[in-house]
Structures are given as C-alpha cells and as structure tokens.
C-alpha cells in the first residue's frame, strides 16, 4: 500500500468533488493506493498497520474507488455511505421507479419524488428511495423532447 501520487490524487478529488462539492474535506484526508484501488484509512490505523509487511497486507480501510487501465477513476459502492452523508445534490425516487434504477435504467422526471434545488446538468447526485436509504449515484442530465418541447431531467 502506498500514498497516491499527485495525478492520482487529483483524479480522486475531482470525482468526489462532483458529488460532494465543498463537503469533500469531511470525507477524505489521506487516501492510499493498493493495486489500483483507493482506500480511505484513518492515520491511526495506518500507523498500526506498519507492523505488517506489504506482501502480507491484503487491504485496509474502506475501498472508495479504483483506477482503470486508461487512468480514469471510478467510485465503488462501498463509498456510497460517505457520499450520502456529504452529498451536495440528492434525488429521491418514487417507489415505481426504484427497481428500474437498480436494474441500471435511467430515471426520468416522472420517476422523481423529490430533488434538491440548483442541480445543473453533469452534476453528480446520490439517489435515494423515499425511505432515505442510499441506492446509488448518478449524473444528472437534461434532454429536450422533440414532441413536447419540454426539458426532462434524467439521472
């Protein structure tokens, strides 16, 4: 396990900032990298783990994402609880569209129960059902319908 270099740190912080905004400082202080996976670990736990050799250490902390071979950063499901508590933009789904979202489909404006204000296209949002348990994350987009000439918000 090693600390992130500057380009890796920038990629991680840009992705997390998309979802949390200025609340980023509440989530990450000192991430570390292990086999292209980024872990969030407290400093006291890192100090205790120095007694274990690197070859014997499988993982430590919470995996918040990973780097692809192309160098882009993808968030994992394990970071969802941290994102949900510090999210800048949130979306709540109606019960009829929850399963559709969980199967990987887009959520149209009709499937939204509530939405935070001032969401701009390409903002990262955390998706909740009406019971306030985080389901996942997504990117807000806006499309214009040719038939209605109305904008539709999609997650």
TrEMBL record:
SUPFAM superfamilies to which the protein is assigned, alphabetical: Pre-PUA domain, PUA domain-like
UniProt keyword RNA-binding present: yes
Domain 60S ribosome subunit biogenesis protein NIP7 pre-PUA, chain residue ranges per copy: 1-77
PROSITE patterns attached to this UniProt entry: PUA
Pfam family, one: UPF0113
Entry keyword RNA-binding: yes
Gene3D superfamilies, A to Z: 3.10.450.220, PUA domain
Domain UPF0113: 90-145
GO molecular function, one term: RNA binding
Keywords: Nucleus, Ribosome biogenesis, RNA-binding
Domain of life according to the entry: Eukaryota
Gene Ontology CC terms: nucleolus; preribosome, large subunit precursor
Gene Ontology biological-process annotations: ribosomal large subunit biogenesis; ribosome assembly
Family assignment from sequence similarity: Belongs to the NIP7 family.
Stated role: Required for proper 27S pre-rRNA processing and 60S ribosome subunit assembly.
Subunit structure: Interacts with pre-ribosome complex.
Protein name: 60S ribosome subunit biogenesis protein NIP7 homolog
Organism listed in the record: Prunus persica
